[in-house]
Fold XRE family transcriptional regulator.
Amino acid sequence: MKKDHPLHKRFMRRLREARLIAGYTQREVADYIGKNSSYVSKIENCKIDLDMFILFRMNELFKKPISYYFESQSKRTKRIKKES
């Protein structure tokens, strides 16, 4: 998928959102995955592709189901209300 594709951008936006919700800085995530913080920034800003291994490592911190990154806003809102 191209980096400028809307689904790619949405996925990366959700990845950033998951990081923020979990309370991690880019530096903390970078340390955990063995990269530098600019690497995490480039992922979140769609500058480089995300390796699946890195995604799974990041998600170990964020503790989100993988489906979280693919949900539409309306589905996510419904899920959040249901969880409350």
Remarks:
- The chain has one domain: 6-83.
